[in-house]
Amino acid sequence: MKTMLRLFGLRGTCALGKNTASRIVAAVVLSLVAGMTPVHAQKRTQHASHQEHASSRAVAARIQAAQTLFDRGVDAANKDKEKAALAAYDQIAQQYSNNDPPAIRALLAKALLNKGTLLGERGSFKEAIATYQKLDQRLGQDKDPAVREVIASALVSKAEAFYKQDDYKAAVATYNQLGKRFAKDNSAFIKHLIAITKWRTAEILADSTDLSSMR
Predict the structure, then answer these.
(1) Which of 118, 129, 140, 209 has the fewest CB within 10 Å, making it most exposed?
(2) How does 135-159 read in b/e, with b if 16+ C-beta sit within 10 Å?
(3) Residue 175 belongs to a domain with what CATH number?
(4) How many domains does the chain have?
């Protein structure tokens, strides 16, 4: 008992009587045990915090890798290095998916949009349209505002690709699809696109006698 008392800095407590001293020691022990519980909880919390931090760093690194790859594609396209640009965009399409964070999904969407644009610029309209359709299939139901804006842009580009193929009916149908799918969207950008497509549709209808039934 004296040893225990000395351990807890309670010398002289024996004068209080064995029972009293025992109660004091028991109280001190309980106090220490009680005091240790938050320590263990803190360790668990710190461990969870470390895990969350590590996970956040991993996500940030993945986003940065996708951004670097996307920038590489844009840079190559600006330097008229079409093959390198398409390769970068294809790599993004292969490495990332709709299960990734919103920032990566937006980059994925933009990569496919840019790929379609490059294909359209060289006159490969069928390939461009297929790329826009692939984008819509993969991310067309995405709820993220940034991704939705890219999808809407892809529909406009798809309609123009149809138009350049002289497929006016498909062009108008695609423009109408944009208006129906995004009619309730609050994005100012998408509202602007819809306004443009209405004007564009009217223009195509006015210039195409074959589409009189769609007026």
Answers:
(1) 209
(2) bbebbbebebebbbbbbbbbbbbbb
(3) 1.25.40.10
(4) 1
201 contact partners, CB below 8 Å, separation of at least 6: 172, 175, 176
Maximum Cα interatomic distance, the chain, rounded to a whole number of Å: 113
Full-prediction pTM beyond 0.85? Answer: no
* Span 25-65, pLDDT tens digits: 444 444 444 444 444 455 555 555 656 666 788 899 999 99
Residue-wise pLDDT for 81-137, tens only, equals 999 999 999 999 999 988 999 999 999 999 999 999 999 999 999 999 999 999 999
* Triad 87, 93, 94: Cα angle to 5°: 90
Distance, CA of 111 to CA of 104 (rounded, Å): 10
Count the residues in the chain. 215
What percentage of the chain carries pLDDT values higher than 90? Answer: 67
| Of the candidates 82, 90, 185, 173, the residue with the CA atom closest to the CA atom of residue 134 | 90
| Domain assignment of residue 54, yes or no | no
Supply 131's token pair. Answer: 């790329």
Domain that holds residue 176: 110-215
Token couple for 130 = 């297929």
Residue 91 lies in a domain: no
